C-alpha cells in the first residue's frame, strides 16, 4: 500500500509518494531531497529540509542535515509535513551571486517580513483565539479537529517567518537591521508560544457525546 509525505515549498503544497511504509522508512534524506528537486526544479544542495509531525500533532524536528540518515530516524510517518527552505548562502555559491550587505536592503527585507506577520498572521491568531474562547467546555469532534488544523496551519506560517528571518544575514556593520531582526524573531516566537497555548486549551476540551 502506497504512502505519502506532504511537502511545502514557497507556500505551495505537493506530495512525494512511496510504494510502502518500509520504502518511506528506509529512504535517506538525500534521496528525499533528490525527489523534491525533480518537483521544484532547483538544485537539491540549495535547500534544507525541516520535518513536522502529523497534521493533528504538530511538532518541529531538527533540520534534516545528515544526508545519509534514513527517514525513520526523524520519526517521519505517512502524512507528516516536510518544509523546504532555501539555503541562501549555498544558492549564492551555485549561481555566482554575491550576498547583499547594504543595510537599507536588509531593512527592506525585514520590513516585508514584519508587514506579513502584522497584517496577515497576527489577525488570524487573534481570530483563532476568539473562536477558541467561544467554545464551551464541550464541543463536537469535527469542530475540535477544525481548531487543531487551524493551530497547525498558523504554527507552520510562523515557522516560515522564522525561516525567512534566518535567511537575513546581518553583519556587524548593520546594527539597526540586526536589532530589528532580533525584535521580529522574538515577536514570532512569542506568537508561536501563544498559538501552542491556545491549541493546548482546545485539546483539553471534552468531546460531546454522540446520541
Briefly, what CATH class of the largest domain?
Mainly Alpha
Separation of termini? Answer: 35 Å
State Rg.
Answer: 19 Å
The CATH H-level superfamily of the largest domain is BAG domain
Q: Which strand order do you get reading across the main beta sheet? A: 2-1-5-3-4
Q: Could you tell me the mean pLDDT?
A: 79
N-to-C order of helices and strands:
EEHHEEEHHEHHE
Give the topology, please.
Blueprint: E1 3-9, E2 12-18, H1 21-26, H2 29-40, E3 47-52, E4 60-63, E5 81-86, H3 88-95, H4 103-134, E6 138-139, H5 141-166, H6 175-203, E7 206-207
Parallel strand pairs: 1-5, 6-7
Antiparallel strand pairs: 1-2, 3-4, 3-5
Helix pairs in contact: 4-5, 4-6, 5-6
Would you mind describing this structure in some detail?
With 211 residues, the chain is α/β, with parallel strands linked by helices. The protein has 2 domains: 3-92, Ubiquitin-like (UB roll) (Roll); 103-207, Methane Monooxygenase Hydroxylase, Chain G, domain 1 (Up-down Bundle). The chain contains 6 helices and 7 strands, in the order ββααβββααβααβ. A 5-stranded mixed beta sheet has the order 2-1-5-3-4, sandwiched between helices. Strands 6-7 form a two-stranded parallel sheet. The radius of gyration is 19 Å and the shape is flat. The two termini are 35 Å apart. The model is unreliable at 54-61 (pLDDT under 50).
Amino acid at each position: 500500500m502506497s504512502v505519502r509525505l506532504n511537502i511545502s515549498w514557497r507556500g505551495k503544497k505537493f506530495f512525494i509518494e512511496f510504494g510502502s511504509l518500509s520504502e518511506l522508512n528506509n529512504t535517506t534524506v538525500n534521496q528525499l531531497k533528490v525527489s523534491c528537486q525533480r518537483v521544484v526544479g532547483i538544485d537539491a544542495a540549495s535547500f534544507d529540509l525541516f520535518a513536522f509531525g502529523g497534521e493533528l500533532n504538530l511538532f518541529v524536528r531538527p533540520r534534516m542535515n545528515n544526508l545519509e540518515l534514513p527517514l525513520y530516524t526523524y520519526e517521519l510517518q505517512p502524512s507528516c509535513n516536510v518544509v523546504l527552505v532555501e539555503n541562501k548562502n549555498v544558492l549564492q555559491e551555485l549561481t555566482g551571486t554575491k550576498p547583499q550587505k547594504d543595510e537599507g536592503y536588509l531593512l527592506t527585507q525585514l520590513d516585508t517580513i514584519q508587514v506579513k506577520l502584522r497584517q496577515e498572521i497576527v489577525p488570524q491568531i487573534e481570530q483563532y483565539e476568539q473562536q477558541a474562547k467561544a467554545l464551551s467546555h464541550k464541543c463536537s469532534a469535527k469542530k475540535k479537529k477544525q481548531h487543531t488544523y487551524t493551530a497547525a496551519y498558523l504554527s507552520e506560517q510562523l515557522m516560515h517567518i522564522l525561516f525567512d528571518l534566518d535567511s537575513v544575514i546581518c553583519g556587524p556593520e548593520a546594527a539597526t537591521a540586526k536589532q530589528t531582526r532580533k525584535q521580529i524573531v522574538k515577536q514570532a516566537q512569542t506568537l508561536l508560544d501563544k498559538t501552542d497555548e491556545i491549541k493546548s486549551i482546545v485539546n483539553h476540551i471534552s468531546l460531546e457525546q454522540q446520541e
